[in-house]
């Protein structure tokens, strides 16, 4: 996993870094959208520029100093297409491919400079319409793979956190070019993307907030619960070919069942023993570790739920894929339903009562055990649904989607007010907007950092969050 | 540790900018005599005391729309046992938390030994000589009983990070503290448990341990939050005795209590709170008959246990205590 | 049989491996946080990565070894202060959320294109760029040495010298932590762990003690980060959330709030981890329906399950006190 990190090759890097602010998007460590720079001639055109109907694939060969290497032949094959290109020293070569899909890039090792090797020599990239899929190869000196890179000690946990923003891909489906100040149109577009992200994030974090409110646990495994939903989508829709709506229902049920099973097997017995919340939090860390390896076991690569090309749809000047709009609508409806459920129904009021004061709720005849069970089931079911919708609207995802989302969910929930259900909604939307708008002014690979920065600032200024009360924090 | 105590008082005295009406703290001997005889003080709300150690003015604490504490004026006499009583939800504990720096008021100020302490942190309030205990006892479970008390010692150079690595710098202080801690434990009859984890103590023993810990800090004023709550009746009498001893040694005691009999038994002055306000003040004998107090308790559905006087009968207590010890 | 011996030798090698020392040191730091003070630091890998960057970048800029070491420690201190300021006055969960987030920020910033010139972006910093000053310190003669079944170069990346240095640092940390935790200072920390309000009521500045503990543990984490990258390279993606969780597993396995718990935990963890991983790849285990490429995933699942089981059934770890467990059961 370590070798296929995306790399920035061209100099001067600082300039590129700025351009990256507008263009960069990472797909699960394999592909990268970037601005195609210089052009080179070969037997086919290598100056592909992505637009609404063009898909580009760009192989990059770098040396140990991460400078581009010229004269290396790379074969691009896949989806019934095959071409051989030769790298140049000036900039990446980019080839237009007929359709989005998976392409294999193979380095012709005979064309490598003397006494060097590439490891690996073959790489898969997923090309998306309107973007450039980059595949980078690093060549090292000497015939054998760099021993340092494969040392067992240092590589042991290296499988964690494969690069960057799995969830990020779709967020920049509609690349915005920024030179100087962003235009109103760009800002507006990012507001749309931010709302989409915020709504989907809210769907995921409501459960986290409810769990915290009723049990006092900061659940570190909630990110993986989201990925369960996304991966369910991949398995049921992409692999098994079920209709989306049938699969969605199944996924919600499966998600809920994982919550029910956890409550029965782990949380209820531990509640009976009166295990302190800090210890329960450590259990969720173990659960998170176990789940992320299971997910990685099932599929370590990038996954797509819906394989057909997204249909761009413009509403109020914001262009998102149709699937995104549908996902947003679903998320909105479900969130409103949750709000109604919490305020209008007996069980909803019971949940809020337990979150407010467990002892008091129990004294008024509410069975906290039953309430907590319902909370676990609904939180995991909602997380699964959120995962499915995120997976669909962001195009593709990997098993480590949960890592990024968990942090953003924590930030959202804390921002809104830890343990308050509406707080999760407000916080999520704000985080979604901030993250997307930040992408306009800073490199997109660090825009998640803005959310976490906000988290720290909130704790400094108003630790109870926007909707929380002072008494809950001490 | 008489010399340490002097240091303590000098410090708080010096902290007063330009002094105040009370002047320097009175020597404890005079305080004792003056404090215990409050019969000539008028039993009315907000009355001035002959030698107040704590003075609170316009203290308010609101939670959302509810005003939990709204105290116009209160003086607490030095060297006396003052009880703070009132029905459930009267705001006693909240007021207590405010005074000791564990909660922040919406408005109001108070001074201790003439120095304003209303915006000080809990730790600084304690260092000024006003030390509290908690309603739900906070025994440090995974520390031994002795460690619990040693922890309370003040001015230990070994509690500074870098100095702590060099034992010779603090060994002498530690030895002295240990001696003092063992004396205090003996006094509270906890010396046999000195090496047990505090978590293994009974409820009553934990209350005693908390008191021992507070005593270890050489306080001028001890604030006890419901010292009798959850204590085996057999231990109540000895707890009350310990509280009286504290006063007799010159400390001022303010305690929150539910149990009227305990209050009547040992307090020199009683302050009654209801719905956040102070509704009456006076000596224990007369204040209970005050119409405002009766109303306050009746208004709260009379949920206060007016109790079984027999429990305070020394004979009954002796028997209960014997039974407790057998177990 | 020969294969089993090979697996055993590999596992024995793990006992002394620099990474084992690094995890032990990181866990000693985490033990100061959680074991002694009760602070929920879920971002120890952030301290480690920052220490590694601090050391690596300082060395590349020309700082001598000991200065680079100090810079790494200063980076850890600063990080602890920044994380502690907003959170140490709040309930413990907030520290947990902020530390895991901040550790992730460090990783994101490290691998981002923003600081590419310094951190090498996602590719990280090659070991050769910063190892020189460390390896020059070695007083060992060149060559190879075999001790028991273990044979390494005397000097170089994965050498006896690296091991000697790494474990010396661990022993030094143990001495410091031992001196500190048996002192009145350590007693205050334990008091804070048990109930910070009670300690506050006794006039101690709890916030300051928590901050001191956070800094001390964080600095140990930064040093652990240096050890971790001395034999290899600085790769931000190898020092993420999983690493933090492993450090927790190591500490809880050995026993939180015990002096030797983290060291024992680290040695045992990596010994067993290697046996499981290498063992599953041997022919002996061919009957298992686990393809070779999934061995690491299975091992990872086992780590997670182990962590859960420890926390649930033996929260005091191997070296923990039975009496304390009895208290927990009450």
UniProtKB/TrEMBL annotation, chain A:
UniProt feature, compositional bias: Low complexity: 152-165
Pfam families xref list: BPD_transp_2 (PF02653)
Residue stretches spanning the membrane: 194-213, 244-265, 277-295, 315-342, 370-391, 422-442, 448-467
First and last residue of the signal peptide: 1-39
Record's keyword terms, sorted: Amino-acid transport, Cell membrane, Membrane, Signal, Transmembrane, Transmembrane helix, Transport
Subcellular compartments: Cell membrane
InterPro entries: ABC_transp_permease, BCAA_transport_permease
Domain of life of the native organism: Bacteria
Residues covered by region (Disordered): 136-165
Membrane topology: Multi-pass membrane protein
Tagged with keyword Chaperone: no
Family: Belongs to the binding-protein-dependent transport system permease family. LivHM subfamily.
UniProt-recorded name of the protein: Branched-chain amino acid ABC transporter permease
From TrEMBL, chain B:
Keywords from the named record: ATP-binding, Nucleotide-binding, Transport
InterPro entries in the record: AAA+_ATPase, ABC_AA/LPS_Transport, ABC_transporter-like_ATP-bd, ABC_transporter-like_CS, BCA_ABC_TP_C, P-loop_NTPase
All copies of domain ABC transporter, residue ranges: 54-300
PROSITE patterns, per the entry: ABC_TRANSPORTER_1, ABC_TRANSPORTER_2
Gene Ontology MF terms: ATP binding
Ranges for region Disordered: 1-35
Keyword Transferase applies: no
Name of the protein this chain belongs to: ABC transporter ATP-binding protein
Organism, as annotated: Myceligenerans pegani
Lineage of the organism: Bacteria, Bacillati, Actinomycetota, Actinomycetes, Micrococcales
TrEMBL record, chain C:
Top-level taxon in the UniProt lineage: Bacteria
Membrane disposition: Multi-pass membrane protein
CDD domains reported for this sequence: TM_PBP1_LivM_like (cd06581)
Assigned keywords, A-Z: Cell membrane, Membrane, Transmembrane, Transmembrane helix
Subcellular location: Cell membrane
Ranges annotated as spanning the membrane: 36-58, 65-85, 160-180, 213-234, 246-276, 297-315
Matches recorded under InterPro entries: ABC_transp_permease (IPR001851), LivM-like (IPR043428)
Coiled-coil positions: none
Pfam families: BPD_transp_2
Principal location: membrane
Protein name: Branched-chain amino acid ABC transporter permease
């Amino acid at each position: 996993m370590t070798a296929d990190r995306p790399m920035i090759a061209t100099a001067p890097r600082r300039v590129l870094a700025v351009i990256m602010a507008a263009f960069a998007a990472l797909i699960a460590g394999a592909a990268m959208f970037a601005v195609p720079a210089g052009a080179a001639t070969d037997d086919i055109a290598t100056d592909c520029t992505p637009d609404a109907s063009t898909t580009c694939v760009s192989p990059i060969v770098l040396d140990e100093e991460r400078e581009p290497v010229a004269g290396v032949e790379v074969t691009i094959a896949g989806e019934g297409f095959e071409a051989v290109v030769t790298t140049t020293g000036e900039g990446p070569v980019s080839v237009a491919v007929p359709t989005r899909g998976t392409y294999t890039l193979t380095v012709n090792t005979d064309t490598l400079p003397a006494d060097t090797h590439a490891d690996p020599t073959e790489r898969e990239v997923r090309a998306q319409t309107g973007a450039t899929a980059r595949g980078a190869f690093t060549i090292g000196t000497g015939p054998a793979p760099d021993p340092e890179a494969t040392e067992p000690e240092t590589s042991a946990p290296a499988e964690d956190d494969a690069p960057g923003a799995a969830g990020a891909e779709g967020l920049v489906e509609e690349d915005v070019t920024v030179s100087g100040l962003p235009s109103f149109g760009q800002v507006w577009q990012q507001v749309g993307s931010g709302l989409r992200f915020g709504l989907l994030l809210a769907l995921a974090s409501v459960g986290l907030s409810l769990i915290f409110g009723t049990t006092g646990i900061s659940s570190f495994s909630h990110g993986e619960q989201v990925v369960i939903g996304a991966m369910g989508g991949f398995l049921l829709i992409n692999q098994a070919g079920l209709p989306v709506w049938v699969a969605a229902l199944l996924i919600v049920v499966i998600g809920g069942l994982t919550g029910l099973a956890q409550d029965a097997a782990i949380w209820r017995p531990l509640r009976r023993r009166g295990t302190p919340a800090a210890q329960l939090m450590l259990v969720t860390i173990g659960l998170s570790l176990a789940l992320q390896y299971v997910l990685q076991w099932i599929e370590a690569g990038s996954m797509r739920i819906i394989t057909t090309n997204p249909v761009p749809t413009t509403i109020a000047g914001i262009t998102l894929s149709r699937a995104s709009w549908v996902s947003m609508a679903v998320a909105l409806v479900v969130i409103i339903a949750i709000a109604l459920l919490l305020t209008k129904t007996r069980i909803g009021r019971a949940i809020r009562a337990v979150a407010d004061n467990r002892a008091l709720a129990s004294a008024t005849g509410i069975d906290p055990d039953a309430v907590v069970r319902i909370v676990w089931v609904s939180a995991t079911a909602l997380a699964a649904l959120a995962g499915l919708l995120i997976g669909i609207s962001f195009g593709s995802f990997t098993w480590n989607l949960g890592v990024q989302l968990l942090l953003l969910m924590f930030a959202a929930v804390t921002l809104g007010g830890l343990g308050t259900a509406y707080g999760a909604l407000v916080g999520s939307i704000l985080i979604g907007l901030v993250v997307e708008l930040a992408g306009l002014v800073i490199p997109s690979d660090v825009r998640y950092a803005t959310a976490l920065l906000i988290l720290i600032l909130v704790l400094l200024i108003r630790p109870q969050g926007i909707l929380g009360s002072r008494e809950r924090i001490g | 540790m008489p010399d340490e105590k002097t240091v303590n008082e000098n410090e708080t005295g010096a902290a007063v900018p330009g002094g105040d009406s009370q002047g320097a703290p009175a020597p404890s001997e005079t305080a004792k005599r003056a404090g215990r005889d409050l019969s000539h003080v008028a039993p009315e709300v907000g009355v001035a005391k002959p030698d107040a150690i704590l003075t609170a003015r316009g203290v308010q604490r609101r939670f959302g729309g509810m005003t939990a504490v709204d105290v116009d004026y209160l003086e607490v006499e030095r060297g006396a046992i003052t009880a703070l009583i009132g029905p459930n939800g009267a705001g006693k504990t909240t007021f207590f938390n405010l005074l000791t720096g564990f909660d922040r008021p919406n408005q109001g100020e108070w001074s201790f030994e003439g120095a304003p302490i209303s915006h000080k942190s809990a730790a600084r309030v304690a260092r000024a000589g006003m030390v509290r205990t908690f309603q739900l006892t906070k025994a440090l479970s995974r520390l031994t009983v002795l460690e619990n008390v040693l922890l309370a010692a003040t001015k230990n150079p070994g509690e500074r990070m870098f100095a702590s690595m060099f034992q010779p710098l603090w060994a002498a202080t530690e030895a002295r503290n240990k001696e003092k801690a063992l004396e205090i434990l003996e006094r509270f009859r906890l010396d046999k448990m000195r090496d047990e984890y505090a978590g293994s103590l009974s409820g009553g023993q934990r209350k005693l341990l908390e008191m021992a810990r507070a005593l270890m800090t050489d306080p001028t004023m001890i604030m006890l939050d419901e010292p009798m709550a959850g204590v085996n009746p057999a231990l109540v009498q000895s707890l009350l005795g310990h509280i009286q001893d504290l006063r007799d040694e010159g400390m001022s005691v303010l305690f929150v209590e539910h149990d009227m009999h305990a209050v009547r038994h040992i307090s020199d002055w009683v302050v009654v709170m209801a719905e956040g306000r102070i509704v009456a003040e006076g000596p224990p004998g007369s204040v209970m008959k005050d119409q405002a107090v009766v109303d306050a308790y009746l208004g709260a559905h009379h949920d206060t246990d007016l109790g079984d006087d027999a429990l305070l009968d020394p004979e009954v207590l002796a028997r209960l205590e014997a039974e407790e010890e057998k177990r | 049989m020969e294969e089993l011996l090979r697996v055993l030798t590999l596992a024995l090698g793990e006992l002394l491996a620099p990474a084992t020392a690094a995890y032990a040191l990181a866990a000693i730091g985490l033990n100061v946080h959680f074991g002694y003070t009760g602070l929920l630091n879920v971002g120890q890998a952030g301290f480690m990565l920052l220490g590694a960057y601090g050391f690596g970048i300082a060395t590349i800029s020309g700082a001598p070894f000991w200065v680079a070491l100090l810079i790494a420690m200063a980076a850890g201190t600063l990080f602890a202060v920044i994380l502690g300021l907003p959170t140490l006055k709040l309930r413990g969960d907030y520290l947990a959320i902020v530390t895991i987030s901040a550790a992730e920020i460090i990783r994101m910033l490290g691998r981002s294109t923003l600081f590419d010139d310094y951190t090498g972006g996602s590719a990280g910093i090659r070991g050769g760029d910063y190892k020189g000053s460390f390896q020059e310190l070695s007083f060992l003669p060149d060559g190879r040495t075999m001790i028991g079944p273990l044979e390494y170069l005397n000097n170089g990346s994965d050498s006896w010298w690296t091991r000697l240095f790494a474990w010396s640092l661990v022993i030094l940390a143990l001495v410091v932590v031992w001196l500190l935790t048996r002192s009145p200072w350590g007693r205050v920390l334990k008091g804070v762990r048990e109930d910070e309000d009670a300690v506050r009521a006794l006039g101690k500045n709890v916030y300051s003690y928590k901050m001191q503990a956070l800094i001390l543990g964080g600095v140990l984490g930064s040093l652990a980060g240096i050890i971790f990258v001395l034999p290899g390279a600085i790769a931000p993606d190898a020092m993420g959330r999983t690493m933090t969780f492993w450090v927790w597993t190591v500490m809880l396995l050995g026993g939180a709030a015990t002096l030797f718990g983290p060291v024992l935990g680290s040695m045992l963890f990596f010994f067993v981890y290697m046996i499981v991983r290498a063992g599953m790849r041997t022919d002996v285990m061919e009957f298992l329906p686990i393809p070779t490429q999934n061995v690491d995933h299975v091992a990872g699942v086992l780590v997670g399950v182990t962590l859960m089981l420890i926390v649930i059934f033996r929260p005091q770890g191997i070296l923990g006190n039975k009496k304390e467990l009895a208290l927990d059961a009450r």
